[in-house]
Design goal:
53% helix, mainly alpha, two-stranded antiparallel ribbon, 4 helices, 118 residues
């Protein structure tokens, strides 16, 4: 499981605010943590934060990259970042939301549906 600090650091790396192995400044960390908490609230409202007991502390690994991209997209204006990996922050956010929704969607089955006629 990944923790909130890992998401924060990945988001800051995507924004170019820190390099690998660097620590975030207290101000940057506080700003990104605040954005993460608001994103997490949205995930709960959308029924996407379905892991564990719904806490912000432990995040399953499969959600980490999309969450980091979502947080980075939301934080981009505060860090004056016009593009993340060549995409606008809005495009990055849209893709992250789509991927998160796809990850929690039930697996399709190829079995015919049984119907009871009355």
């Amino acid at each position: 499981m990944t923790v909130k600090a890992d998401i924060r650091n990945r988001a800051l790396k995507l924004l170019g605010a820190i390099a690998a192995g660097e620590a975030a400044s207290a101000e940057d960390a506080a700003d990104v943590d605040e954005i993460y908490l608001s994103v997490f609230d949205e995930l709960v409202q959308e029924n996407i934060a379905v892991w564990g007991n719904g806490t912000t502390d432990e995040i399953p690994e499969k959600f980490v990259e999309s969450l980091a991209r979502l947080v980075a997209a939301r934080a981009a204006p505060a860090f004056d970042v016009p593009a993340i990996n060549g995409l606008s922050p809005e495009a990055v956010e849209d893709r992250a939301w789509m991927r998160l929704r796809r990850m929690i969607a039930p697996d399709p089955t190829s079995r015919p549906l049984r119907v009871d006629y009355f």
